Every structure is written in C-alpha cells, then in structure tokens.
Amino acid sequence: MILVDTGPLVALFDPQDPYHKNCSSLLKKLKKPLITTAPVLTEAYHLLRPDSQGSIALHKFIEQGGLQVWFMDSTKLRESLKLMKKYVDRPMDFADASLVVAAHHLKTNRIFTVDRNDFFVYRIQVGHKLKSFDVIA
After folding, report:
1. For the whole model, what pTM was predicted?
2. pLDDT tens track for 53-68
C-alpha cells in the first residue's frame, strides 16, 4: 500500500503542473494499492478548482478504484492535531498530519509525494521506535 499526498494528485490531473510528467510516469510504475486521506482530497480538490477538468478526472480516478480513501475517527483526528503541534517548527499542515497518522495505523511507510523535505523529517511511531518514510518522488 502506498499513501498519496496532495502534490501528486494535483500534478497527475493538471497537465500544466510542473510535476505532471514525472508523476504520470511514476504512477504507471506503482503496482500496490494507492490510498489517501480525506484532508488530502480536500486540499487537492481546492487546488484543482471544483469546476476544472482536473477535478473531474480525479473524481473519475477515485470512482474507478484508482485511489482508496482512508477516513479518520475522532481519535485519529486528535492524533493528527497532536502531530501538528509537535511539528509546529516545519509547520505541518492537517493533510500531512493525516498521512502520518494513516501511515501509523495502516502500517506503511511508503508515500508518493513531491514534498520530499517534510516527509524526510516526519517519522512514524512503530512500537517504541520511530521509522522514516520511504519517499516515492
């Protein structure tokens, strides 16, 4: 399973995005299921604009099973807010926090992102140890 951040979703469905070609090429090579969070989708739809062709294409991609969505309950929401306080010096946004929490609960460290700097810093709690992300960029 590979988590997907906002950047690749925008790049994949906006041909004018500077990362479009790279993300499209990488998507073809990814074999595992792709999953994202509701906060990431909110951010992606906002950046693509609701009435755009990119937004419509993302919608179809989700409907056709290209991307699964992981939803947070109130406990996971609190975990995300706690992480945002922990990484306030970055600062960590809600979408990134939701991905770190999802990584912990889904037991994966693989993430498709164009935001290398932050995801090289963020860590996932695995027992008493912290594990780094395997960034696909």
Report:
1. 0.92
2. 999 999 999 999 999 9
